[in-house]
Design brief:
mainly alpha
Length: 492
């Protein structure tokens, strides 16, 4: 417990028994936690957390957002980064209370009942099913950078990417951990090199494609807000998507050795990674080239190296961002497989999503998510130009719903602890319950911004009633099996 006390600010954070005697032992057990292998080590969790903080949303999405919002994009990344940290810190407290591969779905079941678990699980599935479409779209877009792939249809490249990652994900959690470990190493090393090169270029004022880097680059092209504040606010919905995989380390806790020691360190390091890799990279991109040099559909990092004229540098960078897209897809298949298994054993997901292979991999849920990836392949065939932005908006809705459910679970957990029904660990979300309420208000504001943005974003918001109706209809379809799994009489 010494590590936890230190992480939360000292021994004063230790739980105190309520009046009337000590708290009862934890009784909630998630059947979906059985059968997993504890094969993830400290280095895996640390790098999984890093990999979750560096993905497609930065490597590809930042280009289009920079073009529309200008240098003020770093403000959006900073604000969303703080919110993302609060979400993952809240999840970390729940993980330290009871590690579970079902993660927030398992906690929703404990504090909100089966309806809450059902809603949380399917919103998370929406998040990653649509993210899988975005990832294979990004992978196909990156591949088109090289001439050898330029004549291959985008949908074919998307299908190849899905097939490769799916095959790798079905082996075992150990292989998943190793893949993510090396994927994260590549991403971190590449960003580190970019930042070192970028700083040197800014300090030496080295010419890049006819532009002299520095503060003058921002000032000469409209300042921080070249089109006003509103464009910066409007890109927040996409920036939220960039942080979508941060909760992955909470899902992986159920297959981790000694999560009590590993998780606090991994989660606490997220905030500086966000500041360094996201905010720092965007600031450097703004200093190196005018925001008008960036465009949607091409990685801004590739744009810089391409303008720099270093032979092969843009190709190497493009290979790295391709790795990031495949890493994100790999993570999505991993996490939804675990979440769907937890739901399946409680009756709220199809039975086949609960089956596991000898390697402890819930392949049924992984295959279901991969099936939606095939829809992404079809989307790339029908509308290759708009595929990424379209699924990005629906993925953002999934992210907002998932984060909201995590904070609601955290709020209910805080209330249960205050009432003496559970014991909060020493590692806690600071500022509770106000931080949960502020985060929920922020997420609601993002939905409003999506409506104001118009176009595809407004269409996405208009689909929310349809999503709600689908969730209600789905609940009526599974409630009998949920009740049977719980040994109860079916209820609405």
């Amino acid at each position: 417990m010494s590590d936890l006390s230190t992480a939360s600010g000292g021994p004063s954070a230790a739980p105190v028994n309520p009046p009337g005697g000590p708290l009862p032992d934890r009784q909630h057990v998630d059947a979906g936690d059985a059968g997993y292998h504890k094969d993830l080590k400290s280095r895996h969790i640390t790098m999984i957390a890093i990999g979750g903080a560096i993905g497609t949303g930065l490597f590809l999405g930042a280009g289009g957002r920079m073009a529309s919002a200008g240098p003020s994009l770093f403000i959006a990344y900073a604000v969303c980064g703080v919110i993302a940290f609060l979400v993952v810190r809240a999840l970390g407290e729940l993980v330290l209370y009871r590690p579970s591969s079902g993660a927030f779905v398992s906690y929703a079941r404990e504090f909100m009942g089966e309806k809450g678990a059902y809603t949380a699980g399917w919103l998370y599935f929406l998040n990653w099913a649509t993210t899988a479409m975005a990832d294979i779209t990004a992978a196909a877009t990156y591949a088109h950078f090289w001439a050898m792939f330029s004549d291959i249809p985008q949908w074919v490249l998307a299908l190849i990417a899905l097939a490769v990652v799916l095959a790798a994900n079905l082996i075992s959690v150990r292989y998943f951990g190793e893949m993510e470990f090396w994927f994260a190493i590549i991403k971190v090393a590449t960003l580190a090199v970019f930042m070192v090169v970028g700083i040197v270029l800014v300090v030496t004022r080295h010419d890049i494609g006819g532009h002299t880097p520095g503060l003058a680059t921002i000032g000469a092209h409209g300042g921080l807000f070249p089109h006003g504040v509103m464009p910066m606010l409007m890109v927040i919905q996409g920036v939220v998507f960039a942080y979508a995989a941060l909760e992955l380390c909470g899902v992986a806790a159920g297959e981790t050795e000694n999560p009590e020691k590993i998780m606090p360190k991994a989660i606490n390091s997220i905030i500086w990674r966000v500041a360094l890799f996201y905010v720092g990279s965007v600031i450097l991109l703004s200093l190196l080239l005018p925001y008008t040099a960036y465009a949607a559909g091409q990685s801004p990092f590739v744009t810089v190296f391409d303008k720099l004229g270093i032979p092969g540098a843009a190709g190497v960078m493009n290979l790295v961002v391709l790795t990031a897209a495949l890493s994100s897809l790999n993570s999505g298949l991993y996490s939804t497989g675990r979440i769907l298994r937890s739901m399946s054993l409680s009756g709220s997901a199809p039975k086949f999503t609960g089956v596991m292979n000898r390697g402890g991999v819930p392949y049924g849920g992984i295959l279901l998510t991969a099936g939606f990836g095939v829809l992404g392949v079809m989307l790339n065939y029908i509308m290759p130009g708009e595929a990424f932005e379209l699924v990005l908006n629906f993925a953002s809705i999934g992210v907002l719903g998932t984060w909201a459910m995590i904070m609601v679970c955290s709020l209910l957990f805080w209330r249960a602890a205050r009432n003496g029904r559970v014991r909060r660990p020493g590692y806690r979300l600071p500022g509770a319950p106000y931080t949960q309420l502020v985060t929920l208000a922020f997420l609601a504001t993002v939905v409003v911004l999506m409506w104001l943005d118009g176009g595809v974003s407004r269409t996405t918001v208009l689909c929310l009633p349809l999503l709600g109706a689908a969730l209600v209809a789905g609940w009526y379809a599974v409630r009998r099996r949920v009740a049977e799994a719980a040994g109860e009489r079916p209820r609405i």
